[in-house]
Write a structure and sequence with these properties.
alpha+beta; Immunoglobulin-like; 4-stranded mixed beta sheet; 3-stranded antiparallel beta sheet; 7 strands
Length: about 450
């Protein structure tokens, strides 16, 4: 390309950049921001920010100002944050109170700490940032604002879509349930091997029960062929989310329905399980039923040619409570051609997610590391996926020490995957040390803990 052509092309690109909807929107706010420079901060810097919003406590500023602070988000509070990292953040903010919700405002955050005029506020006014979670960053608030948001959800649930566990029974929409599920499963992985786990699972079931029974299961249950009603996508996804929570945390009716589906499939050799919940039903059936069901799923895994179905069936095999079967699956995955090579990592990870298989997967991972590293070590994504997937559920002092010893013995501290895994496991162990006792105390005192 000639020099003149390069200049023309560069000039056109700059004109397009200035005329882009984002640039025009920023100019309407009195801002001139270089789009390329802004995007570089998001695409070239590691990680993402956490934004803390608080009402201004300074006597020099009126009450309609807020303070916004950004910093690099890290799972571990003890890890050293890179204070030089800054993002240009489009932050949407709304304010409201028990009787009304104000309009949404957009402010741009460029510095570590900034103050912005947002609207008239008093002690009863709450703030909500990153409306509808459209920005790729986390938001935190001062304690007083968290309390106001919780109160708002209970008094007027339509006012703010926020994922708080105690509010779930009142929530009819899919997205808050989906967000809550992710948080609950994070807690579940920390608590699922503790002596008091039933306190947590019973509490979750209490929150889920009413909405689960109201939504029910898809209408094509065994014996009702042809009677399939088309529900909206959001309704289907909410129904699936509730079924997954109910079956995962031990709802007896959910377990019975899953067993009924599996039994019907075995007896009729017709799979009438709705496709969007097959993974839940398969996993629940394998975990509750006998070894014959595991062998049936294993047979179906080999006989089906559908790639998506094959993947679901293979993951279901890792749900068994039988450690002999889990160990058998681990060995078959690596030492035979019965499991496709690209699926071996998923088998090990999913066995590790099963509380009954966690120790097996962690032990197997360490014992077979040389083979696994030789096979997948050059594929950075696969290697990182394996390391992160096997270690993210470790949460005891013993497992943390085993991880440290493993890293040191194999000289694995150089790459990004192992230090990242170590950070997460240290965070898991720290959570147990600092919060586990208080968390269970809170569950015992909560009025929603008693299932009655």
């Amino acid at each position: 390309m000639k020099a003149g052509e390069t200049l023309v092309k560069t000039g056109l690109m700059r004109k397009r950049q200035k005329r882009s909807p984002v640039a025009m929107a920023m100019r309407s706010e009195g801002l001139e921001i270089d789009i390329g420079q802004m995007m570089d901060r998001w695409t070239l810097q590691m990680g993402y920010p956490i934004v803390t919003i608080s009402k201004n406590q300074s006597e020099q500023l009126p009450t309609h100002y807020i303070t916004v602070h950004q910093e690099h988000f890290l799972y571990s509070q003890e890890a050293k944050s890179n204070n030089s990292l800054l993002w240009q953040i489009p932050l949407t903010v709304a304010v409201g109170n028990a009787s009304s919700v104000g309009s949404e405002s957009l402010i741009w955050i460029n510095n570590k700490t900034e103050t912005h005029r947002i609207g008239q506020m008093d002690d009863s006014t709450w703030l909500l940032g990153n409306i509808n979670q459209t920005g790729y960053f986390r938001v935190n608030y001062d304690l007083a604002n968290w309390k106001l948001l919780i109160q708002q959800l209970h008094n007027n649930p339509e006012g703010v879509p926020l994922q708080l566990i105690g509010y779930l029974p009142e929530e009819p929409s899919f997205l808050p349930w989906h967000s809550a599920s992710r948080a609950l499963y994070q807690l579940d992985k920390l608590l699922d091997r503790t002596d008091e786990y039933s306190l947590f699972s019973d509490y979750v079931l209490k929150q889920v029960a009413a909405r689960y029974h109201r939504m029910g299961w898809p209408t094509n249950v065994p014996g009702s062929e042809g009677n399939v009603l088309q529900a909206s996508y959001q309704t289907e996804e909410l129904q699936r989310e509730l079924i997954m929570l109910a079956c995962s945390f031990g709802n007896k009716q959910c377990h019975r329905q899953a067993v009924t589906y599996i039994s019907d499939w075995i007896s009729s050799n017709k799979n009438r399980i709705p496709p969007n919940i097959r993974d839940i039903v398969y996993c629940t059936g394998v975990s509750l039923m006998d070894e014959d069901v595991w062998e049936f799923i294993w047979m179906k895994f080999h006989s089906t040619s559908a790639v998506s179905e094959k993947k679901i069936l293979l993951e279901a095999l890792t749900c068994s409570d039988n450690t002999f079967l889990l160990n058998r699956l681990l060995n078959l995955s690596l030492t035979s051609d019965l499991v496709p090579e690209q699926d071996v990592i998923d088998v090990i990870i999913h066995v590790g997610r099963n509380p009954q298989g966690r120790n097996l997967a962690w032990k197997y991972f360490r014992e077979k590391w040389d083979i696994l590293n030789a096979r997948y070590g050059e594929a950075l994504f696969m290697n990182s996926k394996l390391i992160g997937g096997v270690t993210e559920f470790l949460n005891t002092e013993k497992e943390l020490n085993e991880l440290k010893d493993f890293i040191q013995a194999n000289n694995l501290g150089a790459g990004p995957a192992m230090p990242r895994s170590l950070e997460i496991v240290e965070g898991n162990v720290r959570w147990h040390r600092l919060h586990r006792r208080h968390f269970f105390q809170w569950l015992r005192k909560s009025p929603n803990s008693n299932l009655g």
